Amino acid sequence: MAPFSRFLMAVALLYPVISVAAGGTRYSGIFSFGDSLTDTGNSLRLPATGSGPSSRPPYGETFFRRPTGRASDGRLVIDFIVDALGVPNPRPYLAAGKTAGDFRRGVNFAVGGATALGPDFFSSRGLKPFVPVSLANQTSWFKNVLQLLGSVHERRRIMARSLFVVGEIGVNDYLVALGNNTAREARTLVPHIVAAVRSVLTVRKLYPHHSNDH
């Protein structure tokens, strides 16, 4: 799917969320997962991507006047969502500290080049991802954040007032496959990618309950 088509799809999917928020629902922050269409700076902190194109002009010059790690010369869809909802721009996870205060108003886990599927899946097919970060890594970071936020009650309170943005992610999986195989083989990844994204959208996966918490 072309980048502009993916942009339109993202807007179409998120418009109802923004409309509901504008009608009275109040969010206190955003937790975001994805790839370069959502990454606002994590890629700058990874050795594998820190010196990539988004770390140099002309990236960032239209709005921020400097490269910020965004794969754009201006803002991303996530930036416009933040403005529409009137919430803080979620800090890139790899740029944040490691205290609860750093994450109570949301965090951005997205990394440019990230895949929905993990490295073991690609290794089993003789493939290697461009970036050593998958959706599983991002959900693991999210669980680390949950542990910092205190009791189950406190976590639920924060999560109930937060907007979760999952995606866009998966296109890099296809690009990795297409770089070494035919389009027919790349299509075999579809159910695996869908399953990986679906697993994140499952409450039990995204928000594990620990009975010994108080």
How far is it from the N-terminal to the C-terminal residue, by CA? Answer: 46 Å
Taking strands numbered 1, 2, ... along the chain, how are they ordered across the largest sheet?
A: 2-3-1-4
Largest sheet: 4 strands, parallel
Helix content: 40-55%
Mean pLDDT: 84
Gyration radius (Cα, Å) is: 17 Å
Order of helices and strands: HEHEEHHHEHHHH
> Which class of secondary structure composition applies to the elements?
alpha/beta
What's the count of strands?
A: 4
Number of helices: 9
What does this structure look like?
The chain is 41% helix and 7% strand. The N and C termini lie far apart (46 Å). The chain is of the alpha/beta class. Helix 1 runs parallel beside helix 2. The chain has helices at 3-22, 77-85, 119-124, 135-148, 152-160, 171-178, 183-187, 190-201, 203-206; strands at residues 29-33, 91-92, 106-108, 162-166. 33% of the residues are buried. Residues 1-23 and 209-214 have low confidence and may be disordered. A 4-stranded parallel sheet has the order 2-3-1-4. The longest helix has 20 residues, at 3-22. It is globular. The chain has one domain (28-206).
